[in-house]
Amino acid sequence: MSGKLYLCATPIGNLEDITLRVLRTLKEVDLIAAEDTRNSIKLLNHFDIKTPMTSYHEYNKIEKAYTLIEKMQGGMNIALITDAGTPGISDPGEELAAMCYEAGIEVTSLPGPAACITALTLSGLPTRRFAFEAFLPMDKKERREVFQELVDETRTIIIYEAPHKLVKTLKDLKETLGNRRITLCRELTKKHETAFHTNIDQLIAYYENEKPLGECVLVIEGKSRQELKEEAAASWEEISIEEHMEIYESKGLSRKDAMKQVAKDRGVSKREIYQYLVRCKEE
User: Fold this and answer.
1) In Å, how far from its chain's centre is CA 218?
2) CA 28, CA 51: separation in Å to the nearest integer?
3) How far is residue 202's CA from residue 195's CA, in Å, rounded to a whole number?
4) Partner residues linked to 6 by β-bridges
5) Which residues have a Cβ under 8 Å from the Cβ of 204 and sit 6 or more positions away?
6) Tell me: the pLDDT tens digits for 220-245?
7) Which stretches within the chain are classed as H helix?
8) Which of 159, 160, 239, 247 could lock onto 243 through a cystine, CB 3.0 to 4.6 A?
9) Strands of 156-161's sheet, edge to edge?
């Protein structure tokens, strides 16, 4: 029988956040695949776990995945852990899980810490709907495209960022999204955990004088639906009501239905459109 892949969430800071199930699994599996064995050995030593480790990271994720799958096909159970948090969230665990499914290997996920969810719950911003972007692309063109996609995003936005790139990313956010509410989370679950509730302008001003430290999670307010409606209505003001009517009538809508659609586009009542057109006709 084939073995199994266990995606094991590990602490993002405080070691007490590890679950009993993860501890038991790490002790029972045949092998632990770790993003950085030098980092993970500290965790294993702390909990007196003697299971052998092997490296699995961004630079060997495809080649090593085939090796690990072969071992699981031979009956080995393997646990995957990252430097911190839940495997598969912004790390190569995503590829290993997908390749296991293709090979018919069973995969299970053992829940636990995740920086994105921890930061979201700390943010004070809406949590029901959110868009997780993780680390932004390195490629400039792709990065611009992602920012453009976020302009009209109504969900709360979560972005990971390294300290040396923080100010540039904040300036890009200000230029693209405007001065939104934002919560900067750093040192999550650690002694000096910080959740900085502010806006983008104030955060830029602060970090232009203070050196950013530690990996950051940015939780950014989405655009309100009311703002979207107002922007959409304002965009129609660039043409006259008569021209607006002509757009819909040329598509085959009746005059009555065209008036209804024009009123909806402009955020006014159908009666206002009707009265305007009557006045224009009289003039």
Assistant:
1) 10
2) 8
3) 14
4) 79, 108
5) 167, 170, 171, 174
6) 999 988 888 777 777 787 788 888 88
7) 20-28, 37-46, 61-73, 93-102, 115-122, 140-150, 166-177, 200-207, 225-236, 241-249, 255-266, 270-282
8) 239
9) 130-135, 156-161, 216-220, 181-186, 194-199
- The rounded distance, in Å, linking the Cα atoms of 264 and 206 is 43
Structure tokens at 178: 């405007």
Strand 106-110 and strand 53-55: the pairing is: unpaired
Q: What is the CA radius of gyration of the chain?
A: 26
Provide the whole-model pTM.
Answer: 0.82
In Å, how far are 13, 15, 52, 205 from 47, measured between CA atoms? 15, 9, 14, 43
Q: What is the pLDDT of residues 156-205, one digit of tens each?
A: 999 999 999 999 999 999 999 999 999 999 999 999 999 999 999 999 99
Q: Which long-range contacts (CB under 8 A, 24 or more apart) does 257-262 make?
A: 262/236
**Percentage of the residues of the chain whose pLDDT score is greater than 90:** 75
**Which single residue is written with the structure tokens 């959110």?**
130
